[in-house]
Write a structure and sequence with these properties.
The complex is a heterodimer of chains A (about 400) and B (about 100). Chain A has about 400 residues and is an alpha+beta fold. Chain A has helices spanning about 15-20, 25-30, 50-55, 65-75, 80-90, 95-110, 115-135, 140-145, 150-160, 165-175, 185-210, 215-225, 230-265, 265-275, 280-290, 320-325, 360-375, and strands at about 35-40, 45, 60-65, 140, 295-300, 305, 310, 315-320, 380, 385, 395-400, 400-405. The longest helix of chain A has about 35 residues, at about 230-265. Chain A starts with 16 loop residues before the first helix and ends with a strand. Chain B has a single domain (about 10-85), classed as ACP-like (Non-ribosomal Peptide Synthetase Peptidyl Carrier Protein, Chain A), CATH 1.10.1200. Classes of the chains: A alpha+beta (about 400), B mainly alpha (about 100). The interface of A and B includes residues 12, 41, 72, 183 and 184 of A.
Amino acid sequence: MNDRPVISVAFDPFDETLISAPYPTYHRLRSEDPVHWNPTLRCWVLTRMEDVAAVLHDSNFVATNPAQSLTELAARANRDYGPLISVLKAILFFKEGSRHRQSRQTLAKVINRVPLRELRPAVESIASSLCAKFNGLAEYDAIAVFAAPFPQYVIAHILGLPALDVPILDGLLARLTLIFDQASLTLYDELNAKLVSVLHLFKSRISEAIAAGEQNGFSIFYDGAPGSHEQKLAEAATSAVFLYRVGAEATIGLIGMLFRLITERPALIEQFRECPELIPATVSEVLRLESNIQRVVRISRETCVIGGKVIRVGERVMLLLGAANRDPTSFREPDDLNSCRRSIADVAFGADRHFCLGAGLAQLEGRVALEQMLHLPPIEQAGPEIWYPGFSVRRLQRLPVRIKTS
Amino acid sequence: MSHTTWNEAVLRAIVIGPLAEKLGVQPDAFDSAKNFDEYGLDSIDTVLVAEALAGSLGVTLAPEFLFEHRSVDAVVRELMRLRPEAIRSSHDGGLTAG
């Protein structure tokens, strides 16, 4: 029995329009072939909320293991990708079982060390000092001056990383999450070389924190890691890289989209001033609408049926979170921003055992960012935006804005 | 050389080169129409062949290029369609004029 359609609905997973404007394609795929076998990816592609949520909640669908694939690639290419592989191994959403549980507990301790309401003043202070640097400039790139650095300074604060390291790390790690897509050897070489410097820096900072007896995110990662001092240092450094950059990435995306929102709909600013309680709901809506993590891949451990199609054991299933989050079955007029929408669970932060531990922090940062925007002079887009060239992570890389003159 | 032109026969030979080497097949015995999967080219070797091919062509290829075009015929057809300016030529050398 072969359930794979002989004539498949066309879906080019590498079509560049998916980077900037994926939603028309998602809607078409969801309505024409919601459980789609893609011959290029050699995996199933799911777009309905019902199916995506079911897979996310099903422990028979497990995370992929890119560290294993990269280890094999490194061996065949005669490369030393040790640093890059160690960081991939530290990425929580690629872990399963007891390793996943232990790492998740440690990460939760780091993120929750300071409760969000107590963290808020520090987050506000970071946001306002960043705004002070560009407020008054006639034109600026909203991503470079605010959306990208803001979440990184917040994570640096949580970890205990000196603020002066942030610009250096931003340059070294800006392209890290391209490893979630199909990548070339050239990109692996580049990222691996940069991670040598990054891990060296993190190990130095962790050593300093431990020697000084500081209690911060670094010390929690260090204490939570097994083995000798060197092993603990190495694991704490890779965990910190994961939190610092992969954790910040979705928030960089969120805040970039919030900036774009207020340039497109400046009347919202007045609404937020009059009705600040709209801010949290708007942040949640932008998270749903823009879904900064677009693609998640799982492997089926058992043969099962989804939408009438047989998914065999060992087959991969790609979940298009952005498609599920605009499923009209779950969300009426799904493409509209509706801050009064009744709260329905979306999958912008994943779900179940892999639900993002930083979801609350990202929402806080989104709210604080919008609150800061209330104090800025009215802005408009000053030129074409540039998108980050990733298919799994979707975010703006550049958004030129200028102060409105009229 | 400041200008690069694309000749189908030359391109075909360049594309077959790294594939034949990776798969241990004689270049003149390589079936241009046969899907790489039938040759047993897995995803990791696809990445390695893509790197070698990009080097031979003197261009940057999108990482997914050889995943989307899974036979020599398909690769050559796509390269002919793209033309060098669309593939961001990384140097002036590379292919000789036909």
